[in-house]
Specification:
Length: 232
């Protein structure tokens, strides 16, 4: 799979997401469906968007005992998504079980990527709440290595970490990076942002873009601008 722009469809109803996607008459964007939409509308929304010709990243961030994750991943794989994810903190055994569950009888499977530490977790909270005493950076890289050891395809990370992850885990190990903003756009609540062009230069494999596209006056033009900067 080559570089692509994934639109974070953070809507909470089928009506909203489908009327948003109706605007795209040419190239069908790769779409991220998160917990909000999935819990509101159930698996049917995944099938419906898939049938419209979109690739889907199902962002449900699984984390549970290996057996439960394995069985749940088998269900998600059956929805024919293209990419899904889990928390690396669930251990290497859990990630291996997830891969097993995700693999279809014909040997194919969706891409599986790991969340390392959530970007909402600071080093201080990690130390005080989670009793993890190492620097945040080291924890993120260690979790990325664990994901690689377990056979996963990549991690979600900040575009600023993409280069380091590639150096540590190899060029083929995918970096899926949110926190993307246009040079002349609002950054909103994101703190460490990068433009699509810079994310491309630094080696991100997929950028996840939400509000710069979903809240734009012309979402199709904003999407095309992302594609022009990041893919073409
Ligand atoms: O609207 P915006 O472009 O900020 O959306 C980014 C998307 O990526 C959201 O769905 C957000 O939950 C997700 N995300 C993120 N930072 C992470 C992981 C996921 O912004 N570290």
């Amino acid at each position: 799979m080559g570089k692509d722009v994934i639109i974070a469809c953070d809507f909470n109803s089928k009506k909203e997401v489908l009327s948003f996607l109706d605007k795209f008459e040419g190239r069908k964007p790769f779409v991220k469906i998160g917990m909000e939409l999935f819990y509101a509308e159930g698996p049917a929304i995944v099938k419906e968007i898939k049938e419209r010709g979109h690739k889907i990243f199902l962002d449900l961030k699984l984390c549970d005992i290996p057996n439960t994750v394995k069985k749940s991943m088998a269900v998600l794989s059956g929805l024919d998504v293209d990419m899904t994810n889990l928390h690396a903190s669930g251990t290497i055994a859990m990630m291996e079980a997830a891969l097993e569950g995700l693999t279809r009888p014909d040997g194919t499977r969706p891409l599986l990527i790991a969340v390392t530490q959530l970007t909402s977790t600071s080093e201080e909270r990690m130390r005080e709440d989670l009793l993890i005493d190492r620097p945040l950076d080291e924890v993120v890289m260690h979790y990325a290595s664990n994901a690689k050891k377990a056979g996963l395809d990549g991690v979600v990370c900040s575009p600023r970490e993409a280069e380091k992850v590639h150096n540590r885990c190899g060029k083929e190990f995918l970096t899926v990076t949110p926190g993307v903003r246009f040079a002349d756009g609002d950054i909103g609540d994101q703190v460490r942002v990068m433009t699509p062009a810079d994310a491309k230069a630094i080696g991100s494999d997929y950028i996840v873009v939400g509000r710069p596209i979903t809240a734009a006056a012309d979402p199709v033009a904003a999407y095309n601008r992302c594609v022009a900067e990041f893919v073409d």
